[in-house]
Amino acid sequence: MGLLNRNLAALAARSFAARRAPLTAADAASLLGVLTQRWQVGGAPVPEFAVRDVVDRQLLDGGWPPSNGLLVPSQQATTANRADLGVTSFADDERLFTTSLSAVALTQWATC
Amino acid sequence: MVTKEPALAPADPELPKHSCAQFLPNLLRRRAQRRGRDGVLRFSWGYNARTASDADSTTFAVRALLRAGYPLPAPAGRLLAPLVDERGRGNSYRDPTRMGAWAGAHPDVTPSIGMALWEADADSGLQERLARASLEAHDSHGVWAGFWWCRPYYPTWLNLQ
């Protein structure tokens, strides 16, 4: 299972590195999580830019900004077709999700 | 049917007075008791007090209680197993006739249930089934697409964990 995870984590990291779309704060935290996971199972170390991208987004009140990314798909949707149904995405306006995600990602990285 | 509320341990007196650990158990317990259409009282959580219980909210509540050091209102396996289908995939909701696709198997929910069981040290057989289902759900790029998320970063991180 460990070897499988290392390959998968490396594959996911390569796939994300090839993407050009801008990241939300929650995406940046999750990317740091993926890269930390890759490092934990013996893969490449976490690049500094990934840590800095999360740290630099922290606001003066200690939290992180909301991230638009939550979907509430139609109850007739599937994972495969939900994009075709014009689903609206929402941000976590209270910032709880993004803030907790960022804190967890940084903690995992710092204790790895 | 009358079901006695499970006893919860008192909050740790060493914690700051307004620490979340002080009010967490009562808050979570109040939200936890839901009577199903079959009349059976179950312990699970929804994303607010008026909606049906869902797997993500329940796993977050279970993990929060465990991390704060409080007992669960029922064994973790009993709380979470009904949200896993025969192929080991996590379902966000239990009732497809009422919830439609929201009650389907979702790759961003499967690992949340697995992590809650792992943290509770419960039902290793179910953990194994969830892990196998998770490994079958990624695409050829090692990426997991979520049902509830626009982009795959968070679902992928969840599954790799």
Note down, in words, how this protein is organized.
The complex is a heterodimer of chains A (112) and B (161). Chain A has one domain. Chain A is built from four helices and two strands; from the N terminus they run H-H-H-E-E-H. Chain A has helices at 2-17, 25-40, 48-55, 96-110, and strands at 68-71, 89-91. Chain A has a two-stranded antiparallel ribbon with strand order 1-2. In chain A, helix 1 packs antiparallel against helix 2, helix 2 packs antiparallel against helix 3 and helix 2 runs parallel beside helix 4. Chain B has 161 residues and is mainly alpha-helical. Chain B has one domain (20-160). In chain B, 41% of the residues lie in helices and 4% in strands. Chain B has a two-stranded antiparallel sheet. Chain B is globular and about 40 Å long. Residues 1-21 of chain B have low confidence and may be disordered. Chain A binds chain B through residues 1, 4-5, 7-12, 14-16, 21, 23-24, 26-27, 30-31, 33-34, 37-38, 68-79, 82, 89, 101, 105, and chain B through 99-102, 104, 106-107, 131, 135, 138, 141-143, 145-151, 153-154, 156-157, 160-161.
Which characteristics define this entry?
heterodimer, A: 112 residues, mainly alpha, two-stranded antiparallel sheet, 4 helices, globular, B: 161 residues, 2 strands
